[in-house]
Amino acid sequence: MMAPERPGPEDKPGVALVQSGGAVTIPVIPVFSLPNTLMQLKEGDGASNVPTVMEGENPERLRVEDDDLTSLTWLQDKNLLKGMNLRAAVGEHQLSPTSDFVDDSASELADSTCSSGHSPSPAPPSVATSSPNKQKHPQHMPYDPLVHVNSKPPYSFSCLIFMAIEDSPQRALPVKEIYAWILEHFPYFKNAPTGWKNSVRHNLSLNKCFRKVEKAPNLGKGSLWMVDPLYRPNLMQALQKAPFHPYTTLDRVSMVTNRVQVNSPLGAVGHSEFVVIKSSSRLPNPDLFPYLSRRLAASGVEGLRSRDVAADSDTTTTDDADSLDDVDAAAAMLALKHGPRMLTPKKVDWDERPQGNDGVGQACLLDIRNPRKKTRASKNTQDTGRKEKMIPVITTSPSEDHTYSAGPTIAAAQGIAHPALPSSSPEEAFEEGSESDDSFQAMYHYKSMEDMEDTHAKQISSLPPSDSEEQRKIAEGADALLNLAGISTRKRTQCVALHPPVPGKRMTTRGRRKTPYRPRLLRSIRPNIKKKPEVIHQQNQKPQTLINNNSSSNNNNIVMTPGNNVKLLRTSPRSSLFGNTNEYEFNHNTAVEKTKR
DNA sequence: TGAAAGCTAAACATAT
DNA sequence: AATATGTTTAGCTTTC
Hints:
- The protein has helices spanning 34-39, 59-65, 73-78, 101-115, 125-130, 157-166, 175-185, 195-206, 232-241, 246-250, 290-298, 303-312, 314-318, 320-324, 329-343, 376-384, 410-414, 426-431, 447-454, 456-461, 468-484, 492-495, 520-524, 573-576, and strands at residues 18-20, 23-25, 28-30, 133-136, 151-152, 172-174, 210-213, 224-227, 254-258, 273-277, 544-548, 555-560, 566-571, 582-586, 591-596.
- The chain is of the alpha+beta class.
- Among the domains are: 9-153, no CATH class; 325-465, no CATH class.
- A five-stranded antiparallel β-sheet has the order 11-12-13-14-15. Strands 3-9-10 form a three-stranded antiparallel β-sheet, with no helix packed on it.
- Helix 6 crosses helix 11.
């Protein structure tokens, strides 16, 4: 079964070449999409024949239709690539000028060309469609999922799911839409065996990073899946570690192709040149990943520069306000809990901000890696020997990235002290600087914290003393929300013990088998110990239940309202006797007890 | 070499 | 009943 109809790639062209005034100007093309561009260059460099892609056109379709395009061997002949500083672009691989990069890339490009329809003699369909290369994409090649359709994406399923969810408007997707997203953005899976869907479901169920959310029954089968806010930094970290994530690839080099005076009135044809410039873009292609790129930018992945870039980007500026709506619920609740003090970490300009005063997320920035157990990211960056030698590592162990078994890095998310962290509380995290690298200071801050700093927190802080009871209620509600979300609001001494296993997420049994194999026949007769569903059905199905507490002693329900606000329905055991429910509704501007009934 | 991470397959249950 | 979705177990490969 193919994906349901949805906006296709034509709505989000990966590469748009803009023709203007007879000359073809080529915008900055990230390495992520580089092969797309390369594919459009004609053998022999006949510039007059260089196809142009009008904005909005589907590059995928063009790849298919431009059958007159030939391979890129001319690139090797011209030795253009060799002159580039591709060392950084290829991630962790040290490439000597005489490395086998060209050869390998040639074969890979040939594969790409063939698979994407650029070859003048495309491979038979049986080869191109029924035999996807199950091997992962070679690490020394920039990866374009729309081009390297025969290479298995170098991302784990959890990363793919994460990207899919993050790239959705509501940050929540049903399984079916996750399938569709993956199929759209990674056509490899169109020809992959159907087992990948099983893997997706398996990952959703087992991976602690993903949480099931109830949705209205009339919206089809199944539930919505969201990224657990607690683990979002972990996933982002995992994504950064992925060898060809746009962070790590685009980060190194962006390629600007300046085709000089192509089809110009001056007739200066037959000359193309590639100019490689360094860029700090750490974001995915906003055309391919509109929401994802924006949200990662909003999450501070790219840091200061990303903000600047975003401000200059058409894609981001148009929806900049929208991105402000992406309030991290956990951060919001923490802010509510801890009040304005938590929310106002020395308001300073980003450029002037002291290192380390990054609020809740700041603890995430500290490089607390175990020097003995280097992460791949650290190894990679050491290899590159570039300034970005310190990729922010949120967790000390890869096992805490986004895996099934690791405990959440709540300490990091909360600013709760890690043994290696200088601060032991969120407050201290604000009060103390860190020795973090420059590249750290803007990363992984919660944009929502800033937003609330300007609006939400000010409202709270402006409450007169007579409203302290109200504020206490809000804090209490936020506390409940946090606790329900698995975020401890206790002090550090308790935080470790307060990491409960994520309900419904088993602790790992992966790796080598620790228990004897139990035949299916025996397992089939075991009693049904299926856990109770995590989500509850609201009487009014309009809001989506985010979190609920199955405990009978706590009648808290967290729902997401249609306006993407977080609503807490709290019925204390005593008040429930009288049918009273306090309803708190939180958004990025307000935190008020909305109704009582 | 062992452990961890990730992938795949499969059985089974439940929901639509 | 068929299909989609969700859960769980198991075994494998790869990487560290």
